[in-house]
Each structure stands twice: as C-alpha cells, then as structure tokens.
Amino acid sequence: MFIDLNDLEGPARYKLLTATIVPRPIAWIVSRDAHGATNVAPFSFFNVMSGDPPLICVGIGVRGNAPKDTARNIAERGEFTVSLVSAPLAARMNVTAVDFPAGVDESLEAGLVLSPSRSISVPWVAQSPVAFECRVHELIRIDRRTLVVAGVTAMHVRDELVADRDNLYLDGPGMDLLARLHNPGWYCRPQAAFQMPQMTLAQWEALKLSGEADRYLEQDLT
Fold first, then answer.
1. Could you tell me which residue ranges the Flavin reductase like domain spans (predicted)?
2. SS3 for 97?
3. How confident is residue 111, by pLDDT bands cut at 50, 70 and 90?
4. Alpha helices by DSSP H, the chain
5. Tens of pLDDT, residues 41-53
6. For the chain, which terminal residue's Cβ has fewer other Cβ atoms within 10 angstroms, N or C?
C-alpha cells in the first residue's frame, strides 16, 4: 500500500505517523510564563537529538489558532524542564493533558510535587524518576507549530536508579517509563530487553569471509 501524505488532511497524516513511529517517549514539560504562572503538560513528539552537546527536541502543536501555553511560555522565558513519566505516574500525567482554561495550575489538579531546579528558574516534577533542566537553543516555527531545540543543562535522577555512580550507569528497567503508541490513548512500558553489541567492520568482514553472513542476517536476535 502506497500512501502519498500530500493527498491527506492533517488528522490523517497524524494518525498514520503516530501509529507507526512508536514507541515515543513522553516529555512532561513544566514551563512558566513571564509572570511566573506554572504550566505542566505532556508531549510525545520528543526525543534526544545529540549527546555532545546535549540537545533534546520537542514538537509542540497549537490549540485552535493560537500557540499552546507551553510553547508561549518557553518562548517568553527561554527555559523549561522535562520530567519522564513512570508507570505509577500515568494517571497524574493524563490529568495534566486535560484542556484546562488558561491560568489553571495543572500540577495542583494532578497532585504533583514540584521541586526547584539548580540551573534554571523553572521547577521539575519531584515524583518523576528522571528530569532534565533545559534552556532553549533554537525555536523553529513550522506553519503554526513550534519545534523546540533545547540544551540540557542538568539532570535529576532518583538515587536508587543509579546502578553505578562512577561509570554513570543507570537502572533503565527500574525507571519503568511510559511511552506513547497509536491513538487514541495507547501507551506501553518496557518489555523484556535484549543486548546486541554493535559489530566492527572487521567482525562483519570475517562473517562474510566465513560464509556466515546470510545466517547472521536471518536469525532472530531477540
């Protein structure tokens, strides 16, 4: 089946892309407007884009014909936090996705505890296993939407999730993070993991030389 996205309306494009590009991590963004009012909202058009420099990217849509509060706050203040959502926090995250009127503090509605950041003036969700303090690197306007590229200035990781402090190894499965799937409202959590070390060029050439390359390609490494 060939699908030309140019022939489709926006909702249909969204449906297809969100059904296939999965799972998507959830950026639980805390932002503040110029007057200090706090907003908390989840976004799944999100991922890490670079480790050095440490950059994340978040795509924020619109509400009607106006920018969402999060996009406006980030543009005004130039900083925000991203907290990751663990499975026990799913219901609280879902409440912050409600289309509240402007001025409502979602953190109070969802019973969230907000902790002060160290490097910026916007707090983070204290119940989250991991959170990032972020400063805007660039705002890219695409139609009415905003693509936020931000530098991560600091991280907060729950102590029990640090597996090896010296080597900076974290307990990924212990975070029990949620991710978005297809709409409407489908999520997933980590399944059984498997390890697949990246091959060197010499190892791949050795497989081809030994005649084992095809067997390697056809095996199910999971």
1. 19-176
2. coil
3. very high
4. 10-20, 69-77, 90-96, 106-109, 172-175, 201-210, 213-218
5. 999 999 999 999 9
6. N
What pLDDT, on the 0 to 100 scale, is given for residue 170? 95
Between 119 and 100, name the one with better pLDDT. Answer: 119
- Closest residue by Cα to residue 132 from 178, 93, 82: 82
Mean pLDDT of 188-197: 87
| CATH code that applies to domain 5-193 | 2.30.110.10
Pair type for strands 145-157 and 54-60: antiparallel
Cα separation values, 155 from 83, 122, 130, 158, 213, Å:
10, 13, 7, 10, 42
Q: Which amino acid is at 31?
A: S
Please check whether residue 91 is in contact with residue 42, taking contact to mean a CB–CB distance below 8 angstroms: no
Q: Residue 158 and residue 201: Cα distance in Å, rounded?
A: 38
- Report the distance separating Cα 30 and Cα 210, nearest Å: 55
Place 66 in a pLDDT band, splitting at 50, 70 and 90. Answer: confident
